[in-house]
User: What shape does this take?
Amino acid sequence: MYVKSTNTNNVLNNEEIPLKLKLLGKTQISGKPINLDNGKYAIKLYDGTIIPAIFLDNLKLNPDLYSRFYIKGFSDDILLLKVEPEKNETNNVNSFESILQKLDIPYEKGKDIIMSLLKFNLPASNENILSIYKNIEFINKINNFNDEHIVNFLKENINSTINYDSIEFKVGKEVFNLFKNVDVDFLTFLVENNLDINIDNLCDTSNIIKD
Assistant: This one.
């Protein structure tokens, strides 16, 4: 069995993969489907681990999209995965519009948040929707920062003497670059794992899952 990982500490051998998943009682798994160099497929988990997999759906692989899959079994220690069926209870335009109008959130942005929460089996509560919306808006704003914006932000929040030659500016710029890996699914993943949406967790998790 062939396993790749962006971190050698995350590599699971032939015996560990099915055993670990069974011991954890997993019936579902979150990750993004990828195409390996040998023409076979795998799923990349949020911790960087890459596990060989067979996707039972006629799936167009999107290397940038994390999804939740049902574990249907194993074939020669290769995961058999199927896309989770759509939820019916809130998955319609009228329901989304009603929720988002009350929260004063634009429909298209709010719809993506609700769909992400449902995909991760999390409640599309007002609290979860608002938290992710406010944070993704802030992160999108930061992603548009140029060097001048970064310096001004650091001056206002850390040290008024910071300039372009300061170590604080260089570190701050590296941190802000990590935010480019953050999307709605990323924030939902933090919520799912009871992690606060803060700079420490954003940076730590971004470092783990970035290519």
